[in-house]
């Protein structure tokens, strides 16, 4: 998915040997855009927050076909 914007905010540093986990969060989805936050944590401490805006492809082509399949799978 093409990315329109990506912002990273570093809150703390991880150390060698730390177990780092990524936790994505979908903030909002429109017909053409996805707004997300991704948090990297060590234990309960958030060490990084990434905020992104992604464009959902429209039209024809390989990228559109993949995006269309994902959206159809998400329908209840």
Task: Characterize the structure shown.
With 76 residues, the chain is α+β, with helices and mostly antiparallel strands. Helices cover 17% and strands 51% of the residues. The chain has one helix at residues 62-74; strands at 3-10, 20-29, 33-42, 45-55. A 4-stranded antiparallel β-sheet has the order 1-4-3-2, with no helix packed on it. The longest helix is centred in the last third of the chain and has 13 residues, at 62-74.
Question: What's the short story on this structure?
Answer:
Helices cover 17% and strands 51% of the residues.
Which keywords apply here?
76 residues; alpha+beta; 4-stranded antiparallel β-sheet; 1 helix; 4 strands; 51% strand
Per the principal axes of the C-alpha atoms, what is the gross shape? elongated
Low-confidence stretches: none
Class of secondary structure makeup: alpha+beta
Give the biggest beta sheet.
4 strands, antiparallel
Secondary structure: number of strands: 4
Compute the gyration radius: what is it? 15 Å
Helix proportion? 10-25%
Strand order of the largest sheet: 1-4-3-2
Termini separation comes to 22 Å
Q: Helices and strands, in N-to-C order? A: EEEEH
Provide the residue-averaged pLDDT: 81
Number of helices: 1
What is the beta-strand fraction? Answer: over 45%
Q: Which helices and strands appear, and what pairs or packs with what?
A:
Elements: E1 3-10, E2 20-29, E3 33-42, E4 45-55, H1 62-74
């Amino acid at each position: 998915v093409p990315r329109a914007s990506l912002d990273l905010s570093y809150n703390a540093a991880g150390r060698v040997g730390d177990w780092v986990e990524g936790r994505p969060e979908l903030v909002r989805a429109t017909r053409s855009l996805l707004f997300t936050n991704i948090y990297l944590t060590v234990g309960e401490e958030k060490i990084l927050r990434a905020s992104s805006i992604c464009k959902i492809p429209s039209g024809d082509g390989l990228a559109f076909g993949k995006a269309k399949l994902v959206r159809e799978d998400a329908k209840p």
